[in-house]
Amino acid sequence: MSAPTSPARGPLARAWASNKPLTFLGVAMIATLVAAVVGLVLDPRVITGAPAWLKPAKFAISVALYSFTLVWLLSFLPGRRRLVGVVSWMVTIALVVEMVLIIYAVIAGTASHFNTSTPAAAAIFSVMGTAIVVVWVATLILGIALLRHRHSDRAFLWSLRLGVLIGMIGMALAFLMTSPTSDQLARARAGHGLPTTGAHSVGVADGGPGLPIVGWSTVGGDLRVAHFFGLHALQLLPLVGFAIARWAPASWRAGHRFALVWTVGLGYLGFVLLTAWQALRGQPFAEPDVVTLSAVGAIVGAVVVAVAAVAVSARRREVAV
């Protein structure tokens, strides 16, 4: 399922040989995570209701996972060295800039995101937004390349494509956080300016009660939920495709595996969009109402029915053969 590699090398050595910029980024983020954990232990400061070094730690994990995932995905384009190089350097430079600014803000004792209290803070927030746009465009380039790529296992290839597509949607959902909230606009109209522009939470202020580690609001909506699940489709759907290719019954035709990948992909996309809709309604992720639970039931039910239909079709073909 991946490009040929030498069995004598470890995974990190193979990643370095395959893609130096992104491997450097991933290793640098592991080192950043270690430093951030030390900061969590030694630094008692709190920024926007959370330990000062929690955001660098979470971003380091996310960026490391994303960079190594990209190394693997780009290995499916062995004949596109120039494209692979462009995507790799775009992502590496953009995310290094992003992480440097996040760490700088922590050292300065201020918020990195949504902070427009001073011209310098606003400039930092703008540069961070631009960096994420660069990452999104690089991911789009990868997605287009995968659409043009051919692979012996069509179902597995589509698991990669759908993972990239839903990952891009998850990234794009983060831009819903950058618009001023109604409270921020009201303060601006009252002459207090816009020291903060945008927020993670909907209906409540950032920094309130939240779930452990992730910090998702437990008293209002939180757009980080949809962003998180959408972004990690990059890892989840290829794993689904791999599992189907590896363990689906031998009697299943390529069309059955293809239908199963699309069923899981569309169901997962529905879940991501549902969590975004739930957040925009100001509802905590951990406290869904009847409407949200009904929507979850509809998505799960549709996926189960579709999977059952695929299994029945495959079984009928097996019996007929």
| Strand line-up in the sheet with most strands | 1-2
Q: What is the CATH C level class of the domain at 1-149, in words?
A: Mainly Alpha
End-to-end CA span: 29 Å
CATH third-tier fold name of the domain at 1-149: Four Helix Bundle (Hemerythrin (Met), subunit A)
Name the poorly predicted regions: none
* Assembly level: single chain
Rg of Cα set: 22 Å
- Give the percentage of residues in beta strands: under 5%
Can you describe what's shown?
The chain crosses the membrane at residues 21-42, 57-77, 84-108, 120-146, 158-177, 225-247, 259-280, 292-314. Keywords: Membrane, Transmembrane, Transmembrane helix. By secondary structure, the chain is mainly α. It has a domain at 1-149: Four Helix Bundle (Hemerythrin (Met), subunit A), CATH 1.20.120. It has eleven helices and four strands. The strands form two sheets. Strands 1-2 form a two-stranded antiparallel sheet. It has a two-stranded antiparallel ribbon with strand order 3-4. β1 (46-47) and β2 form a beta hairpin. The mean pLDDT is 91.
